[in-house]
Amino acid sequence: xxxxxxxxxxxxxxxxxxxxxxxxxxxxxxxxxxxxxxxxxxxxxxxxxxxxxxxxxxxxxxxxxxxxxxxxxxxxxxxxxxxxxxxxxxxxxxxxxxxxxxxxxxxxxxxxxxxxxxxxxxxxxxxxxxxxxxxxxxxxxxxxxxxxxxxxxxxxxxxxxxxxxxxxxxxxxxxxxxxxxxxxxxxxxxxxxxxxxxxxxxxxxxxxxxxxxxxxxxxxxxxxxxxxxxxxxxxxxxxxxxxxxxxxxxxxxxxxxxxxxxxxxxxxxxxxxxx
Length: 275
Known about the structure:
Blueprint: E1 10-21, E2 25-28, E3 32-33, E4 37-44, E5 48-53, E6 56-62, E7 67-73, H1 78-83, E8 88-89, E9 95-96, E10 106-112, E11 120-128, E12 147-153, E13 163-166, E14 188-190, E15 194-198, E16 205-207, E17 209-211, E18 218-223, E19 226-227, E20 233-236, E21 239-242, H2 244-248, E22 253-261, E23 267-274
Parallel strand pairs: 15-23
Antiparallel strand pairs: 1-2, 1-3, 1-10, 4-7, 5-6, 7-12, 8-9, 10-11, 11-12, 11-13, 14-17, 16-21, 18-19, 18-22, 20-21, 22-23
């Protein structure tokens, strides 16, 4: 049986933007992958309070304020800078950093490659700082420079959960990076992972989904990352039907369709469009 002795080989780093509404209602965006993971270093944050009486420690309590540390990547992608750091892109495609931009909070998902159990982790409320900007003139040897930013992980404002981790062969593991894992979250799965649409014999394509929560429902559908217009979708609980009119307009080929739900993980199916 494998034993967890050393953690190394950071990989599968994802971020999910946090959206906070009135009444401390928190929702998470779909996790996005950040390639080029290098290092994650976190120290526990919190205080220990002691009260002395009768010549001894009468009362002692520790507070959990999450973690503080740094995330080092080969390169912080522009998409992250726009989604989280508040940068903007102008009409010429230039990435603009403004002094008044407000950073956004996000959930951080990751995995350690050297972990025998291949444990996957999520920090629920991460607050970033702007990454350092470093470069140097080229010399006789090439030493890659990395992007590093300080981060603070705090308890989620709704659940007060700081982090969660999940191991192989447990519910939610396979789809861990498709949606932020929540306590007792439902598991969503598709009956058939690959479907075919024929232009010679067109018909609406039905995606059959099963959820462990009977009241769950689909909320978004994306084809190759672009939203499918609602006029072409029929939603019945967690099941989704895509109209033949929408699929007929596509070029022949394989397309990835991702469905998001009110609760639990997203699911992905492949639709092969043929002549």
